[in-house]
Q: What sequence folds into this?
């Protein structure tokens, strides 16, 4: 019964954004075989920072009951921390930042996205997890920050001014 959600998850990773995630946890939430999955996501341009993203993965029984095979809820949570020496590559330092990860949450119209923004004034990396929906925007989001003030970060292309 878990084959279809696992295939959907594999497809999402194949079609994901610039970073790939590694599953580190899976918690069953009910008898419908719904789960909360936790994935570790390494920022592809910032070595030494790892984000953990938690999201809801609907089980096969719930998909049958709901009558919707092709969509998972938009809910997610993110926590990012320094996990080693920080080396920052050529990141986009404008106010919209850059997308570092995206995975489909429905067949066509919804994705779980993680953007990184550099807050110059506070010397902090800001990570935002949100649902990108083509038809209706979603206000479901989660935020995490990694302060650089005492991290002795190395900037390969020079620190943005």
A:
């Amino acid at each position: 019964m878990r084959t279809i959600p696992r295939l959907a998850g594999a497809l999402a990773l194949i079609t994901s954004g610039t970073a790939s995630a590694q599953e580190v946890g899976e918690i069953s939430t009910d008898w419908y075989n719904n789960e909360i999955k936790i994935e570790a996501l390494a920022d592809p341009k910032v070595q030494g920072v790892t984000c953990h993203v938690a999201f809801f993965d609907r089980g096969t029984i719930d998909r049958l009951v709901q009558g919707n095979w092709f969509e998972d809820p938009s809910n997610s949570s993110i926590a990012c921390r320094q996990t080693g020496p920080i080396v920052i590559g050529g990141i986009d330092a404008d106010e919209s930042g850059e997308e570092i990860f995206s995975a489909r949450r429905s067949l066509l119209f919804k994705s779980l996205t993680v953007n990184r923004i550099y807050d110059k004034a506070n010397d902090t990396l800001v990570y935002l997890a949100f649902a990108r929906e083509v038809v209706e925007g979603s206000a479901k989001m989660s935020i995490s920050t990694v302060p650089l003030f005492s991290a002795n970060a190395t900037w390969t292309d020079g620190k943005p001014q």
Q: What stands out?
A: The two ends are 53 Å apart (CA to CA).
